[in-house]
Design goal:
Elements: H1 16-29, E1 38-46, E2 51-61, E3 65-71, E4 83-86, E5 101-104, E6 121-125, H2 129-140, E7 144-149, E8 154-157, H3 158-166, H4 177-185, H5 189-206, H6 208-216, H7 229-236, E9 241-244, H8 247-252, E10 256-260, E11 264-268, E12 271-274, E13 279-281, E14 284-287, E15 291-293, H9 294-302, H10 304-307
Parallel strand pairs: 5-14, 6-7, 6-14, 7-10, 8-9
Antiparallel strand pairs: 1-2, 2-3, 4-15, 11-12, 12-13
Helix pairs in contact: 3-5, 5-7
Length: about 325
């Protein structure tokens, strides 16, 4: 990060608590004015004064509780990530579900710890990273799990994918992060796609046993846009891939079941009815169905007039 880089001895995958402590220390050392538990409720641009009028509601303030503040900045930066609001499908019968939970993956707080000997049924709709991680969490907590795959997914193992795509660049012994960023971002997109076609073929060769096992289990695979794999799917769609950290083997072994290629006809009180007539019973249903474009968040914060002026971004 600017001015204070991450410690060079840190692992490639930094634990969440370690990263949270780092952010708190970073803000304190650089004397940044960080407001958490704060919601922007209104924002208007004055073209004559060339400034914003912004209303903020702050909560959990020691000794105060909640307060409303009005500010007049000249600039606002929307740093809310490349995705927007959650994409939750509207399916007939959703209100009739009698199980414990029917929610979007962004609202998933973790699988319940079940009493010894008790088994519960979970259905996860969606097969990208969130869907796989949630399905794995359910399985590890003793649930009977089915993952619903409606189209196809690009799958690569974390170990082989990172080694082939980023080995020698973003790893211990590689160049400084700033230099690595320049090296990576300086490759023209057309050339990057061509390079990643070869890289994707090599990753698939290394992952062949797992990929064959997935296909045997009924899981449908693809190789990304123009067979260019993970990065091109991320750049062009913002989804449709899984970086495997263990769930694929659970599918291969039949520990997590797959329902492939069928749309949901209706939500029943006890599960999901598919267009092929099959009813899958469930106690919990999670829709890992992704997010809208970041323009949706801009619309929510700044209103239609400004959001309509925002250019198309990524997978819109």
């Amino acid at each position: 990060m600017p001015y204070i880089p991450f410690p060079s001895h840190w692992p490639m995958f930094t634990p969440k608590d370690k990263l949270a402590e780092w952010f708190e220390s970073y803000a304190r050392l650089l004397e940044l004015n960080v407001w958490t538990s704060t919601t922007l409720t209104d924002a208007k641009w004055d073209a004559d004064k060339r400034q914003w009028t912004v209303t903020l509601v702050r909560k959990n303030i020691p000794g105060i509780g909640e307060e409303t503040r009005t500010l007049h900045p000249r600039h606002i930066i929307q740093a809310t990530g490349h995705s927007g609001e959650m994409k939750m499908p509207s399916i007939r019968g959703m209100d009739s579900f009698k199980g414990d939970a029917l929610r979007h993956s962004s609202q998933f707080k973790g699988a319940q710890v079940l009493p010894k000997g008790e088994t519960r049924r979970a259905i996860v709709v969606g097969c990208c990273n969130s869907g796989h991680d949630i399905a794995q969490d359910f399985y590890e907590h003793g649930y009977d799990v089915t993952i619903v795959q409606r189209s196809s997914t690009y799958v690569m193992s974390s170990e082989n994918g990172i080694d082939v795509l980023l080995g020698g660049l973003y790893d211990e012994g590689g160049p400084e992060t700033e230099d690595a960023d320049i090296l990576f971002m300086s490759i023209p997109n057309a050339m990057l796609k061509r390079m990643h076609q070869d890289a994707t073929a090599e990753i698939s060769r290394r992952d062949e046993p797992t990929l064959k096992g997935l296909e045997k289990a009924g899981f449908k695979l693809d190789s990304g846009p123009d067979d260019a794999g993970f990065f091109m799917k991320y750049f062009q769609r913002g989804g449709g891939y899984y970086i495997d950290v263990g769930c694929s083997q659970l599918i291969v072994d039949g520990k997590i079941k797959v329902k492939q290629g069928q749309e949901i006809e209706e939500v029943k009180p006890n599960g999901l009815l598919f267009t092929d007539g099959q009813l899958l019973e469930a106690d919990e249903i999670i829709f890992a169905t992704g997010y809208d474009n970041m323009r949706g968040t801009a619309r929510k914060i700044f209103g239609d007039e400004l959001a309509d002026k925002v250019e198309v971004a990524q997978h819109d």
